[in-house]
Amino acid sequence: MKRKRTYQAVPVEEVRLEEVLPMLITLGCIVALDVAKEKFVAALATAAGEIVKLFRFKHPTETSKFLELVTTLKGQVPSERLKVAMEPTGTYGDAVRHQLYTAGVPVWMVSPKRTHDGQALFDNVQSLHDPKSAVLVAKLCAMGLASEWTPPSDMRRRLRALVELRAHHQQQRERCFGRLEASQARHWPELGRWMDVRVQKSALRLLEAHGSPAPTQAKPDETRLLLVAESHGRLSKEVIDGVVTEAMTTSGVPPVPEEASLVRHLAAEALELERRIDKIDVQLAALGSDDKGFAQLQTWMGTYTAAVIVTFCDPRQYANARQLEKACGLNLREKSSGEHRGRLSIAKRGPALVRQVLYLFALRMIRASDVVRAWYMRRRGYTEDSKQRAVVAVMRKVVKAMFHVARGKEFDASKLFDTRRLEVVPQTTTARNTFTSRTTPRSIARRSKAASRQDVVAT
């Protein structure tokens, strides 16, 4: 029995355009690309999505041959009837896309999610490979399920580079914090009861200078002077005395010189990374100062959060708040069948970094705004002892406000939340952003939810 060759692709050198050119001139042409690191697959199709030829080429050694083929098509096929369609797969296709755009060939982008969802749409086969992906891209583009690509501005590219560099530094700093906490638990567990390396620079300075409790045991007065100087006098006498006293009787494992050197290096690296992050924040603020949308979001959300939003999901490029919510991956989805009713959850599509900064911003809003906090505490998720669902609900509200703030509106919580049904209770008079000296040890562990519920039942 003859074997089917439905998705057989030939090398780019074997493509003979003169054989298919009359059809493409008459019916229009779509050149669909399946992007990979080296092995690209292209599909020549009519404007209606009928596949004419499948071929492959290696990038970048054979890219010039592919570009020559497209240039030939551009000279023969009317410009309004020629499209190149591809998926935004990382950065592997950016070089080819740039060359096509420079040559004046319009490039259209097809969502990889559409390609994945349509794998069994045309041939009833639940499979996906490179030639089939190129075919699907061509058909989806012919169906109008693609958007024309325009190159981002230089400012947006610079913003993205700074955002990615800051995220890299932040990840490295978190790794330093994790390793410091692990080392601290082994060699100096009492220090964590009084100081937090993630919050207090003075704790990092102490570890950078000493690396272990041994120098504090030998020269306690110098440790006291160091903590006073590095905290600028904001650490209370009780905290300093607690650190010094418990260093004398620590239960930790005495470190060898190399282990103490490792702690000093990690503390110094965490401090250096924090300085770099602060420097990048200054650059972000200066770079986005001429962008009105960025300036509006920066005033409300902060420099880094605004930079991430403008870079990955600029609210001004969407027609309504619902589209922006979908781009951020915060639209709700449900999977129900028959009597089974699935639980609503967010789609989590789009850049994860956007959802991360929105989650942190929602926590800040809950803490800073009396209206937001009152609405958050009334959410069903909060009352069901699942507060994360309530935080996500605040995130969805924030996205709707973000759409209007980026267009010049001032944020007004009363327009976002129905204040008539809320019992807004102002926070205590304690300043939210001021430093409060610690006079008692930090709690080492939080009580579990089950233990808290048992206490409630017992009472």
Give an overview in words.
The protein is an alpha/beta fold. It folds into 3 domains: 10-148, YqgF/RNase H-like domain (Nucleotidyltransferase, domain 5, 2-Layer Sandwich); 157-285, Helix Hairpins; 291-334 and 342-426, no CATH class. It has 20 helices and 9 strands. The chain has helices at 17-27, 63-76, 94-102, 112-117, 130-142, 154-187, 201-209, 214-218, 220-230, 237-248, 257-287, 292-301, 303-312, 321-327, 352-368, 370-378, 380-383, 387-405, 413-416, 449-458, and strands at 10-11, 29-34, 39-45, 51-58, 82-86, 107-109, 147-148, 332-333, 345-346. The strands form 2 sheets. A 7-stranded mixed beta sheet has the order 1-4-3-2-5-6-7, with helices on both faces. Strands 8-9 form a two-stranded antiparallel ribbon. A hairpin with a 5-residue loop joins strand 3 and strand 4 (51-58). Helix 7 runs antiparallel to helix 9 (220-230). The longest helix is centred in the middle third of the chain and has 34 residues, at 154-187. It starts with 9 loop residues before the first strand and ends with a helix. The relative contact order is 0.07.
Q: Look at the structure and give the CATH class of the largest domain.
A: Alpha Beta
* CATH homologous superfamily assignment of the largest domain: YqgF/RNase H-like domain
Largest sheet: 7 strands, mixed
Strand order of the largest sheet: 1-4-3-2-5-6-7
Count of distinct structural domains: 3
How widely separated are the two ends? Answer: 79 Å
| Number of helical segments with 4 or more residues | 20
The arrangement of helices and strands along the chain is: EHEEEHEHEHHEHHHHHHHHHEEHHHHHH
**What is the name of the CATH architecture of the largest domain?**
2-Layer Sandwich
Question: Proportion of β residues?
Answer: 5-15%
Give me the CATH fold name of the largest domain.
Nucleotidyltransferase, domain 5
Total strand count, please? 9
Shape: elongated
Structural class: alpha/beta
> What portion of residues is helical?
40-55%
Using only C-alpha atoms, the radius of gyration works out to 29 Å
Q: Spans with pLDDT under 50 lasting ≥5 residues?
A: 429-437, 443-459
Averaged pLDDT = 88
